[in-house]
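debug: dumping io for the single-chain case to check the tokenizer round-trip. Nothing else runs in this session.
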Amino acid sequence: MSVCCCQIQLRKRITPISWLSWVLWCSVMLSPAWGYVIVNSVSWSVTNEVEEELDSSSNEEALPALLEDTTSIWKQSYPASVYKEDGEMRSRPVAGRSKQISSPSRMFSYRRESVKGTDSITPQEQASRTARFLTHYNSWGFLATESTQEKIQGVPFGNCLLVSDGPINNSTGIPFFYVTPKDNTVTDLMKNSVASLTLPEAEGEFCRKNIIDPEDPRCARLTLTGQMVMVPPEEMEFAKQAMFSRHPVMRKWPRNYEWFFMKMNIEHIWLQNWYGGVSTIAVEEYFKAVPSKE
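debug: decoded output
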């Protein structure tokens, strides 16, 4: 009311231009947004309790509960199967949480389920079984040789090759290959037959189903090293069954490429199957084991 009276008293003393300036000045002074800047941002606070839990948590089992975002601000797209499998876990009431988790906890942790009857198996036996599983169920592998090519002579050279250790119902543990002399890898092997074969679990369902990267230690990988040799005549028929039963397309490959069979005489075995480093498996234990992913 006092402002209006002031405006009436001053109206007679000021020009129209000055009057307009006065009105604009009053509008700015009376505006509730004067002096503020609107910033569009998202923020959150971390309580002392969470900081203490993060500092004291030493195992990976405790991390998912602390890293989950319950605000539903951030969302990512995952396969529908992941949400379906986690549905039952999320529907269970958990003390201290009033909102449903929006992202699958398996991104941070996954525990392999034990198989009945395997409680008495030693860790070394389990490692041997897993190694045989990877050799048998992988349809391809990464073979590394010592290059004989002019520009990279003596440098490690890798190539992806189809592989089989036998028909699906007959695992031998011995990798067989169907190769051509026109391949640089074979040229390398003719000069130095020592090679390294890596067989990743990434090809199977486990890593894809649980959204685990191939380099993650939970996504197992097997490395075999040894001598690459030509399959002798007495094993030729089995080599054909091993390769053609698993890779039927090979039968139609052009014959002018002079395809022939090779196999690896395994000398050393390394397995990365979980956190904690690489396991060394004895060759005799490897061949005695029955293929199993546990």
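debug: round-trip ok. The longest strand covers residues 260-272.
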